Amino acid sequence: MKAKVGVYVCECGPNIAGKTDLDEIITYLSEFRGFGDVELVVRKYGFLCSNQGKEYLEKEIRDLGLTHLVVGACSPRDHDSTFKDVCGKTQLNPYLYKIINIREHCTWVIDDMDKATEKAKSYLRAGIARVLYQSELFESPIDVNPDVLVIGGGVAGMEAALALAGENRSVTIVEKNDTLGGRAGKLRGFSFQEFNKPEQVEKLIETILGNPCINVFLDSEVTSVIGFLGNFEIEHVSLESKVITELFCGSIITATGADLYETTEESGFKYSESDDVYNSMEITEMLSSGDEITLRSGKEPETIAIVHCVGREELGYCSGVCCTVMMKTANMIKARYPDIRITQFYRDICLPPSGGQELYAAARSSGVNFVKVQSTGLSGTTVKFKEKNGDEGEQFFDMVLLASALVPSKDTPALSELLGIPVDETGFFQEAHRMTNPSATTTDGVFIVGTSQGPRNISDSMLFARASAGQILTKLLVGEKLVPEVAVTEILEAYCTGCGNCLDVCVYGAIYPDEARGISIVNEAICRGCGNCYGSCPSGALRTKHFTNIQLFREVDEALR
Amino acid sequence: MKDKKEKSSNSEFTPKVVGFLCNWCTYAAADLAGGSRLEIPSSFSVVRVMCSSRIDHNLLLTTFFKGADGILVAGCHPGDCHYGEGNYYARRRFAQLKKVMETLDLDPERLELVWVSAAEGNRYAEVVSDFTEKIRKLGPNPMNSSTRF
Amino acid sequence: MPKNGSVLIIGAGIVGMKAGLMLAGASKKVHLVEKLPIIGGKVIKNEESFPNMECSTCMVAPVQQEVLQNPNIETYTYSDVESLSGSKGCYEVVIRRKARYISLVNCIGCGMCYDPCPVSIPNMWEENLMDMKAVYVPTAGSLPNVPVIDSSKCLHLNGTQECNLCVESCVFDAIDLNDSDEVVTVEVEAVLIASGSGLFDLSALPNLGYGDLSAVYSPLEFERLFASNGPTQGELTLRGSDISPERIAIIHCAGRSEVGYCSTVCCMYSFKFVRFLLHKLPEARIYDLYLDICVPGKSYQNFFTTLGEGSTTMLFTPSLEDVCVTESDSALRISYPDTSGESRELDVDMVILTAAIVPDSDLPELARIAGVELDKFGFIKRTDEGSGSTETTKAGIFAAGTVTGPGDIQRSVIQGESAAGQIMELMSTIDGEKV
C-alpha cells in the first residue's frame, strides 16, 4: 500500500503561525519529492489540541485514510499523548505518528522569521522521514497472579500480609525461625510509641494465624525464585523436613529485618561475656519482661553507663533509632530505680520526631548525666572516652549498655542473589529510587520493607510494609491484566552471539540468557525501553522499538540536508 | 584531510550541529529554554532519545559520516538518570568513542557529552550556543563527501 | 450513596501526586485539590535533593506531567476544600475553584500577557526575592503552565482603573476578567490529606536577626537563591547587591527548642547547602554552628562525612539560645558559647538559618473542615501511628507526608503509598468484609 502521510501544523495562535511563514512551509512540503513514492497531505490548523482540533484530526485520519501522521506543534511533553489518543480512536496505530516540537525548539527560540521557517521545514521533514520508518506496535496485556509471597514473619512482614490478604488474594509468609514476631516479638512491644504493649505483637500473630487467606511456613527458607512481576514461581523448603513446596505469586515482599552490630576489640571494645555489658536487645528484653535489673552477681547496679553510637563510625551511618531507645531505657530505669546513677556518653543526639525530644528532656531532668564525646571504648565495664573538648577520661561503671547500630541481616547477600535485587553501599537492600520509590526495587514486583531496606524503628517498619502493600494493591488488581511498556527492546536472534554484555548493563534484569540457543532474550514485560543495552551490543542484534537506528538516521539525514 | 587544516576561520560558515537529548532531563530543559524565549542557534537540530545511554557509537559516527559538524549529547546529571544509571554507561562509551574519532582524523572536540537538568533552561541555551560557536571555530567536518555515506 | 470509586486528595505535592497516580492506576477516580495555581509541592523549590544531589525538577516533572495527563485524575489547582461532610466510605466534598481569570483550556502558556501588565508584586513562591506581574506563573516551568491573576493587585479587578492590557495581549481568548469562583461538589469514598507543612517563623528568634538583617536567610530563601531557575538564576549574591559572600555561617536547629522536636531534615539540607556553596563559591569559608548532628538512616551520615576535611568548619555550641547575630562594621557578627562555654565571635557575610518544620498555617482550618484531630505539635494525628497506619482520628480520612510531622521525601512518599494501600483496602470492603 502506498504511504499517505498527513502532516498537520498547528498554528498555535501567533506562536507558530506568527513566527514562521506557514503557507510557504505547506507549499514546500507538499512539493517536496525527497521521500519517493509517498503521498503527502500537508495542512495547517488553528489549535490542534483543542477539542475541535482533535475532532478535525480524527476525521482527517479516517476520511483520507492516512497511513502515517506527523503533527507539527509543541513539545511531546505537552501533547504527545493527546495526539496518540486521537490516533487510538482511528485505524491509525499510534506508533505511526510523530509530534514535531516546532514551538519550543524553533519558533520560541529563533527570532528571525526566515530562519525559523527553514528550521520548521527541516524538523518537519525529519519527522516525515522518521515516521515512514516507524512500525506499528501493539499493547500485549499479560495475566497476573494477585497472590503475594512475604519473606520474613516479623512485624513488617505480618503487617504487609494483613494489609494484602483477602478472599481473592492469598499471602504466604515464609519465616526461617520457628515463631512469628521477629525482633519486635522479642522486644515485646518495647519500641512502640508507648512504653509497654507486649500484647500488640502477640495479637498480630494471632490475627495472622487465624486468617484463612494467609499461609504461614515456619522454619522455612525460600530456595528458588524465577519469573517476573505478576508471574513468579517460588520454591521454599522446610529446614526440618526438607520438604520443598512450590508456590506461584505475582509479587514478593522482602521483610527479613536487620541484626545488631557486634563490637570488636580492634574498635576499642574489650569485654567478656561475664562482664555486665548488654546491648539494646538484651536490656530491653530484661526491662520489658518485668524482671529486676540485676548484675550477673545478683546485686543491683549503682551506676550504669549508656554508650551511644556503637558501630556508627565503622559502618558509616547513624541508625537513627538508638537515641530514642536509650532515652526510653534510661527513663524506665530511673522510674524504677531512682537511685541508680546513669551517664550517657553520646556524640550527637539524634531524635527523629514522635516524642524523642520529650524523652530526652525527661532524661535530662531526671538527673541522667550526659557527656558529649568524640570517641568511646570499653575495657570490661570501664568506659574510656575522649570528650568534645579533647579531654580524655576513664570511668568505671557497674553496668554498661551499648546502643549498637542496626546492620543488614546476615541473610541479605544470599537473598540479594536469589531475588536479583542489589544491595547498596551499606549492605542493605537498594531501593528502585531512594526518594521517590523507596519500597520498590529495580526488579518489578519485588519489594523491600522494614529494616531490610535500612535501619528504622518498628512503627516506620510497619509503615514501609503498608507502603509495599499499597503498591501491590494498586498495581496487581485481582482479575485485571497488566499492560507492559510497548516501546521496548528486542533481540534479533540471527545476530545475537550470546555474549551477555546486554545482561550486565540492564538495571531491570529484563534480559536473560537462553543457554540452549546461545543467545540473550528480552523479557518485554519487564523492559522499560531505555536503550542502554543497545549501546552495549557488539553485533547489532538489539533493536529499541520506536527508537531504532534507521529511524534516528532518517531524522539526522533531514536535519543535515 | 587533516581536521586542523580546515580551521581557516570562515565567519560565514554555519555549522550543522545535532543534539541528541535525553527525554527526561535535557529535553525538558530545552522546552524550558523555549518557554523562556532564549535564543538557540538555528543550525542546531534536536533529536530526542529516551536515555543518553541509547546513543551508541554507530549512531554518532554515522551522524558524523552524514555530515554533522558537531554532535552534542546531553542527558541527566550523573545520579539523576530516570533509568537508574544509564548516563554512567553513556559516559563510559563516550570515552571510548573519542579515541576512535582520533583515528578517523576527526577532532574529538566535535563531540561533547554534557549533563543538563530539567531545571537548567538557561544553561541549556548557553551550552548549545557555546558548543555551536566552538564548532564554528573548528570549521566544517573534514570528511568530504567521498568519505561520507 | 452508592460506591462511586472516588477519592479526594488534598495537596498536589509529591505525596498527593504519587498516591493519586497509584489510585488512578487502579481505576479509581481521583479529585486532586491544590491551593496553589501549580502542582508539584515543595520539592520543586529545591534545585537538588539530598542525599543524591538529584535534580528535583527531573525527579518531579515527569510525575507532574503524568498527573495532568491522567484521565482518572481531576486536578483542581488554585482551589480549596470548603466543606467535607459524611462518614467513612461516603463523604461529600465542596471544592471552591478560585477565579483564575485565565482559561485552563484556552491558555497555551505563551506568557505574552506578562509584559503588558503594569503591576509588579513580590513573588511569594520565590520567597519574595523577586517581583512578578499581577498576572503570573510562580516560576518558569510551572505546571500547569497557565498563569493566574492576583485579583487584589490587578488594577482592573481591584477597581483602580479600567486596565485591559493583558486581555488585549492574549490572542487565545484565554483571559476573562469577569471570571468568578466555581463551587464544585463531589462525592468520595475516602480522603487523603497531604497538604504539607510550613517553616518555623524565624522572626520569632530576634537574637538570630532574621528579618532585620538582610544577609540572614531562611533555608527556602537560600534554596531559591541557588536555583538556576530562581530569582538570580543561581548566582549566589547577597540580597540587593551583586556581591557574593566570602564567609557564610549556617546556624542549625533554629526553633528546635521552641517547637519541642528535632525536624531531622535540617542537618541534611544544611550539608546540601555546604555542597552548593563549595560548588559555586569554592573560595568561600563556611561554618556550621551546631548542637547535634542528626543524620538518621543508612545514607545520610555519609552525605556529611563525604563533605571532606576543610569543606566546612564545624563549630559546636552547647547552647543555641545564647547564639546572637548582630551587624558588625563590615558584615555580620555571630557570638556564641563554645564547647567549654566561653563566648566567641565569628564575622561572616551571610547567615543561613535552618528552620524547624512546623504545621502549615492553613492546617488548623483544614483540620476543622475535615473534622480530624491534631497532635500536640499541631500536625495531623493518626490513631494507630504505632503500627504505621496513616488513618486520622476520623475513619476514612488518611494523612501522609509532612502534614503529619517533619520527615524527608522518602518517608513522605512511603506514607503516601501506605495511605493509597489503606484507601484501596477501605474501598474493597463492603460492610467491613473484604472482597
Per CATH, the architecture of chain B is 3-Layer(aba) Sandwich
Kindly state the mean pLDDT of chain B as a whole number?
86
Q: CATH homologous superfamily of the largest domain in chain A, by name?
A: FAD/NAD(P)-binding domain
Tally of separate helices of chain B: 4
Amount of beta strand of chain A: 15-25%
CATH fold name of the largest domain in chain A:
FAD/NAD(P)-binding domain
CATH architecture type of the largest domain in chain A: 3-Layer(bba) Sandwich
Q: How many strands in all of chain A?
A: 26
Widest sheet: strand ordering of chain B: 2-1-3-4
Helix/strand layout:
The complex is a heterotrimer of chains A (561), B (149) and C (435).
Chain A: E1 4-10, H1 22-31, E2 39-45, H2 51-64, E3 68-73, H3 76-88, E4 97-101, H4 102-107, H5 113-131, E5 148-151, H6 155-164, E6 171-174, H7 182-187, H8 198-210, E7 214-217, E8 220-228, E9 231-238, E10 244-249, E11 251-254, E12 258-260, E13 269-270, E14 277-279, H9 280-288, E15 303-310, H10 312-315, H11 322-336, E16 341-346, H12 356-365, E17 369-379, E18 382-387, E19 392-396, E20 399-404, E21 406-408, H13 412-419, E22 446-448, H14 458-475, E23 489-491, H15 501-505, E24 511-514, E25 519-522, H16 532-536, E26 542-544, H17 549-560
Parallel strand pairs in A: 1-2, 1-3, 3-4, 5-6, 5-11, 6-7, 11-22, 13-17, 14-20, 15-16, 15-20, 16-17
Antiparallel strand pairs in A: 8-9, 9-10, 12-21, 17-18, 18-19, 23-26, 24-25
Helix pairs in contact in A: 1-5, 2-3, 5-17, 6-8, 6-14, 9-11, 11-12
Chain B: E1 17-22, H1 26-35, E2 44-49, H2 57-65, E3 70-75, H3 86-103, E4 111-115, H4 121-138
Helix pairs in contact in B: 1-4
Chain C: E1 6-10, H1 14-25, E2 29-33, E3 48-49, E4 54-55, H2 56-69, E5 73-76, E6 79-87, E7 90-97, E8 120-122, E9 131-133, E10 135-136, E11 148-149, H3 165-169, E12 182-188, E13 190-193, E14 197-199, E15 216-217, H4 219-226, E16 247-254, H5 256-259, H6 266-280, E17 285-290, H7 300-305, E18 313-316, E19 324-327, E20 332-337, E21 343-348, E22 350-355, E23 357-359, H8 363-370, E24 397-399, H9 409-427, E25 429-430, E26 433-434
Parallel strand pairs in C: 1-2, 1-13, 2-5, 13-24, 15-22, 16-17, 16-22, 17-18
Antiparallel strand pairs in C: 3-4, 6-7, 7-12, 8-9, 10-11, 14-23, 19-20, 20-21, 25-26
Helix pairs in contact in C: 1-2, 1-9, 4-6
